[in-house]
Amino acid sequence: MISTSIFSSSIAWAKAAYDRGLKTAGTPFATRFMLAFAVLESIIIPIPVDPLLVAVVLAKPMKWLRMALACTLASVIGGGGGWALGAILGLGIHDILAMFPEKLAAPTAFAAVEAGFASWGLILVFIGAFSPLPYKVIAVSAGLLGFGLLPFLLVSLVGRGLRFIIVAAIARHHGDPKTVIGLLSLLIGLIVGGIWLTH
């Protein structure tokens, strides 16, 4: 059994590095850290990369689109890694998740996503890529349940791309993280509501 204290320490370190990334948003370190974080968020870290993207864009507003696209690519690469974990480990992933702290493993989220895939399929991948749903859970579950890698990556690219471009564009033109989060939440609510009404 892997000690939960190791994972607690890892999460604490990630949060500390995350705070450092926010404070040094205008530096090359912040950009590199944002990209690395985007990869890891799609596999295991339960902290969204969006505030880092907002901070970097606010520090480098003229590069907002480049930062959004780079963040998208990094996140989808991480999603591919999550898909591979699910595909390779199969049902054994549940045994591995049982060794993690509940907040990190998110067993309830995994169970809900696996059930949702039966009726939603790749639509769930898009919703997970675009919305605040835990994308890492979507990625691992897609590999576990046998969804094709290429369709998964393409749908993820669209969903993550839309999300990060919207976040970066609002940050670029409004410069207020609260506005970014508020408008993004509204847009997500409208899209999810529309899908629910037509399902």
TrEMBL record:
It comes from the Bacteria. One of its GO terms (cellular component) is plasma membrane. The keyword Membrane applies. The chain crosses the membrane at residues 29-47, 67-92, 104-131, 137-158, 179-197. InterPro entries: DedA_domain. The keyword Membrane applies. Keywords: Membrane, Transmembrane, Transmembrane helix. PANTHER family: ALKALINE PHOSPHATASE LIKE PROTEIN, DEDA FAMILY PROTEIN. This is Membrane protein, DedA family. It comes from Puniceispirillum marinum (strain IMCC1322). The lineage of its organism: Bacteria, Pseudomonadati, Pseudomonadota, Alphaproteobacteria, Candidatus Puniceispirillales.
